[in-house]
Design brief:
cytoplasm, 5-stranded mixed β-sheet, binds 1-O-pyrophosphono-5-O-phosphono-alpha-D-ribofuranose, 2 domains, 34% helix, D-Maltodextrin-Binding Protein, domain 2, histidine biosynthesis, binds adenosine-5'-triphosphate
Amino acid sequence: MKPVIALTKGRLEKQFLDYYQSLGYDIAPLTDKGRKLRVDTDDFQFIFAKGPDVATYVQYGIADLGIVGGDILAEFQPDVFDLFPLPFGACRMAVATEAGKVWSNGKKRIASKYTGVTKAFYKEKGESVDIIKLEGSVELAPILGLADAIVDIVETGNTLKENGLVVEEEFMQFSARLIANRSALKIKREALKSVIAKLNPNGGNTHD
Ligand SMILES: Nc1ncnc2c1ncn2[C@@H]1O[C@H](COP(=O)(O)OP(=O)(O)OP(=O)(O)O)[C@@H](O)[C@H]1O
Ligand SMILES: O=P(O)(O)OC[C@H]1O[C@H](OP(=O)(O)OP(=O)(O)O)[C@H](O)[C@@H]1O
């Protein structure tokens, strides 16, 4: 049985494919897959899913390995083994507000896709806030008056800038990560060891 890798669809998928190709793997079966969500290559079976679902497939052992953003691990804290960072998908978690925002004395309203991270961040600060969950385009919330600020990931800063927002505080840094199912690491140790080493940007020194 080939190892099963769950890959986050979209942005990380594209960046992973470049990385995977740079390691000498043939990416043709993965780029020519059409709408298929499960693809076999000579080395692996790949499944394509949204980030939080990648973590779920790995946690439940459907996938042996997963490629997922560190932001997803911070938000959902799945029970998986976090092997090592991969050299793509770099971004930061930040609080952002409208430029020149004047804070009132009331309880702040914070909009975010990352409600778990947001809650933990303000708890650590000892500040009580109202958190509003959004699914995307969170930069709209302060502009339209839904929230005082957002907590979101920032890469280039272009989305904030083009929407008149500025970073107030950055508090976490992420990249894509290789994660593994905990029991697969033990049971399929021999089969997984060499592929994990091959996917390791540091040449396999991290996990034995
Ligand atoms: N601007 C960004 N720069 C770098 N990494 C990002 C950026 N946006 C997202 N990521 C990373 O890529 C992962 C997947 O993001 P992506 O935008 O492809 O999916 P998504 O957030 O589910 O959005 P969508 O609903 O549009 O698919 C995130 O979990 C994060 O780790
Ligand atoms: O700093 P930047 O390089 O501009 O990147 C940051 C943007 O990228 C992500 O959004 P995404 O494109 O995933 O869309 P979403 O709003 O639907 O989550 C994130 O939520 C920011 O909006």
